[in-house]
Amino acid sequence: DTGVSQDPRHKITKRGQNVTFRCDPISEHNRLYWYRQTLGQGPEFLTYFQNEAQLEKSRLLSDRFSAERPKGSFSTLEIQRTEQGDSAMYLCASSFGGNYGYTFGSGTRLTVV
Amino acid sequence: GENVEQHPSTLSVQEGDSAVIKCTYSDSASNYFPWYKQELGKGPQLIIDIRSNVGEKKDQRIAVTLNKTAKHFSLHITETQPEDSAVYFCAARPNQGGKLIFGQGTELSVKP
User: Fold this and answer.
1) How far is CA B89 from the centre of its chain?
2) Do the Cβ atoms of B102 and A33 come within 8 Å?
3) Average pLDDT along chain B
C-alpha cells in the first residue's frame, strides 16, 4: 500500500461544468475525509465518512458539492456547475478510526476558468 | 465557533537555530492536536501529535507542548536544517473522532 491516492492531480475546467475527483484511502483505514485548501490557507474541512456512512458535512459546503463512498473503500467528490471560487486544492485523507492521525493524499488542484 | 489561530505566519531562522510556532484553540473540548508539514505540491504530512492528557511530547529534534488551561500548544524544532523549510500547520480536533480544524500555517525558512 503506497498511501492515499488522488486522481486526477490537476483539473482545468470551464465555469459551469461538472467535475468529479476520486480518492483511494489506505486500505485498512475506515475513515475518509475531504478538505479544501486555497493558497496561503490551512485545509478547510468539507466532509468525512466512516466506512460508507457520511457522518458530517461542513455547513459551508454548498449543495453543488456531493461526496460518496459507496462500498466503504474509495470516495468521489463531485462539484456541479463549477464557479471560479471553487478553484482550490482538494485534499483527501484517511485514518484508522477516530483516535489516530490522518494520512493525506497529494491532492487534486482544480482551476475553474 | 471552532477556531485555531497560528503565529507567526512566516519565520526565518539560521541553520542550527531553534524555531517555535504557536497555536491557540477556542473549543475547550478539543482533545487531539497534530502538527503537519507541507512541502510545495504535496499534501500535509503528520510530523508529531499530542493528546489532551499529555503536556509534552518529543521526537528527536521536534517537540510539542500543550497548555490546556490557556488553550494553546506549540511546536519546537531544534537544530534546524534547510530541509525543515516548509509550511507547518497546527490543528485541533474539537470532538472525539471528528474533523480537524487547521491553523492558517507558518512558512518556515531555514537559511544555510
Assistant:
1) 5
2) no
3) 94
Among residues A53, A55, A40, A56, the alpha carbon closest in space to that of A89 is found at A40
**Rounded CA gap, A36 and A46, in Å?**
7
Instruction: Provide block-wise average pLDDT over 10 residues at a time, chain A (113 residues).
Output: 90 98 94 95 95 90 93 94 97 87 95 98
Determine, for residues A102 and B49 on separate chains, whether the beta-carbon distance falls below 8 Å.
Answer: no
The label of the residue with cell 517555535 reads B20
A59 touching chain B per CB within 8 A: no
- Considering only CA atoms, which of A84, A63, A75, A65 is closest in space to residue A13? A84
All cell numbers assigned to B103: 491553523
The grid coordinates listed for B64 are 510539542
A–B CB contacts, 8 A cutoff, strictly below: 57
From A43, A98, A104, residue closest to B97, measured CB to CB: A98
C-alpha grid cell, residue B79? 537544530
